[in-house]
Amino acid sequence: MKAVERVDQFYLLKQLPKATALLCKKGIVQDASCSWLEIFSQSLQDKNHQTKIFPLYPEFLDLEKKLMEHTPFSIKHKIKSSKGTRHLKSYFAPWFDEKENVIGTIVQTDDITSEVEKEQQIDWLNNILETKVEVSKTGWWEYEIEEEKLTWCKETKRIHQVPECFEPTVIEALNFYKPGYSRNKASMLFHKIALSHQPYDAKLMIVTLHGEERWVRITGKPIIENGKTVKVFGTIKDIHDQVTAETTVKEHQQLLSTLVDSLPLNVYVKDLESRKVLVNKGECKFLNKKPEQVIGKTDFDLYSEETAKIFREEDLQVMKHLTPIIGKETASTVHGKTIYFLTSKIPYFDLEGKVCGLIGMSLDITNIKKKEEQLRNLINITSMQNQKLISFAHIVSHNLRSHSANFSMLLGFLNSEKDAEERKRILKMLSQASDNLLETLENLNQVVDINTKTSETKTPLNLKNNVLKVLENLSALLEENKSQVINNISENIEVNCVPAYLDSIILNLVSNAIKYKSPNREPLITINAVKSNEGIILSISDNGLGINLDKYGDKIFGMYKTFHNRKDAKGFGLYLVRNQIEAMGGSITVQSEVDKGTTFNVYFNEES
Amino acid sequence: MFILMKKVSCIFIVDDDPITVFGIKKMLRTVTHCDDVQIFQNGHEAYEAIKERQEKGENIPDVIFLDINMPIMDGWGFLDELIDLNIDEHVVINMITSSIDPADHKKWNSFKDRCPHILNFKNKPIFKIEPEDLGCINVAS
User: Fold this and answer.
1) Are B40 and B93 in contact (CB under 8 A)?
2) A339: domain CATH number?
3) pTM
């Protein structure tokens, strides 16, 4: 046989580094390299002992048939031995002679154990990755720049809510980003990574295939070869729930801090040691300090010892007994000013329900307090005026009634009176009653005028000049009564008065001094004026009859009150004087001793 | 109707208003005859007169017409002084006033309780003096 004869040639085969065997058409090993024989644990046989190929591939029952087809093919197989399993791959190719006749099969076998093991390892790694992706919901993607091919993993597709068969282009992928900021940013980052190899990590919003807007975190990392980005690898993670939760928390915080800061209250939170751990703008403004100057401080650092002690006691009461203080009025002194607060303190509990401090709220009611004070004063003034009004109404009704009663009575007489002489007398009385009524009305009018025209402008008047003017008008009366007047008023004293009222006051007081002179003495009138803290006091003293003030004190300034038997005493002058000085915001007092004299003090109100 | 007439020997009219005095005097003439009718301008004058009469053992007035608002001593002041005089006789005092101030009515009530005399309160205008005003008792009716 040709083949046998050329055994030398086959010797060559033995030395081939790649495991190779030659088979005859019947599948019997003709020759083989040592390495091939080693793989299959065979030794080169003699002619009597033939090695058939088929038992060496026990898994492939149709190998014989396959060989008959005279086409190349390969099969993977394995051989188990005590050393372990060897993974192998055998290539079968037809063996031709010079005339292209098939004379057998060439077999080459590679040991692919390490490859298979690597594959297995990759599979395992893939599995791990898959699990990780599933658990962390982080998908990955990669982009091959040369081929412009973008690959999304399953999770990435799930995040985009696209079917698994979806294969996106770059444009399509970018279009998933929400138009506006997210899309622009994504495009920019993607563009940049290819050019300047800049990895990125961004939070952006996508609109999924189903139209849902979701927050994602995307990362991108360039894979660089020879200074050129060849591939971009990145991840994508759905962080929507997280972002929404964060946003909600932030919104709540924002709302709360805006609310607390803008409340027109001083708000503070204290810990168990009464240290301030939170203060709002109002509290800082009130203390005139920055928040960092207040945080950690106690009231002992901010208020006087005394005030701080009270506050600390309140705090302890709230935190120990868990009884809130609601709307308590407190006064505290800061920078020497007393400030009134409406304070509430409520216990502050931690998440476990244990008290960990208190929340305090104080409303500055200083202004309200001031207003209240003003209001109270106003009420006092009003009720005083009301009292005056009532008493005036009584005076009016009494005085008018007495005249009308007289009319009624006299007219009653007149009706039944026959005697002409008597009728004449009654008529005379009637006309007298009418005169009296007119005079009364005139007096009342005067009083009403004073009390309604309080707005009449006060002007600064020189007191001395005005007194001199009145004395001149009274000169006849003064002379007639041989009166002496000592005017001690200095030149420069001015009083804010309604001119007519000042004249009336001086006139009435001076003429009263003469009217009620003592029959035993010549009248001596002393006029003084002094400046006091409350304003200017004008005093007019006489040495006249005097009056028993214990008896008549409250009546001397009353209307139609007279105390001496004088025909010209109407009991109206002093009533008028009091109304005039009170209308100008001043007052009048009297001191008197029977048969010694009387002093009237007029207090002028300098406010205009 | 049967009226027991008590002899009215002395009447005081204490009022500073001449018209009222005129009216009272005129009305008195129609109900009684009294020779001793005295007029006073104020409470003080009337008080002095009564004190003098008491000291001299003369007639104390049976009836007094008393105004409230008067100078020097008003009607209330007069009543105070009169009570202090401790007069044994029961004088009929008619307070005559044009005042409708409730305070005056109240004051009258309080005086009525502590005054040993008969105290009437009459609002002006008055047109007639009733026998009761002179202390006459209406027995039959």
Assistant:
1) no
2) 3.30.450.20
3) 0.50
